[in-house]
TrEMBL record:
This is Uncharacterized protein. It comes from Exiguobacterium sibiricum (strain DSM 17290 / CCUG 55495 / CIP 109462 / JCM 13490 / 255-15). The lineage of its organism: Bacteria, Bacillati, Bacillota, Bacilli, Bacillales. It comes from the Bacteria.
């Protein structure tokens, strides 16, 4: 199933955010209440959008 976050998968941004979330979960600093991919994708989209807006 396609998601709006598919363009970010397998990118460096995706990998960094995913790893950071994994570390927070492992340290009990964060509890994921939705799928990991949804959280990572949403954050990738927000960061990418913010960087694009600042670049204009």
């Amino acid at each position: 199933m396609k998601t709006p976050y598919d363009p970010y998968k397998n990118t460096e941004l995706w990998n960094v955010i995913s790893e950071a979330i994994d570390e927070l979960v492992e340290n009990d600093d964060l509890k994921e209440r939705t799928t990991h991919n949804h959280i990572v994708g949403y954050l990738c989209q927000k960061v990418s959008s913010s960087l694009t807006e600042k670049g204009n």
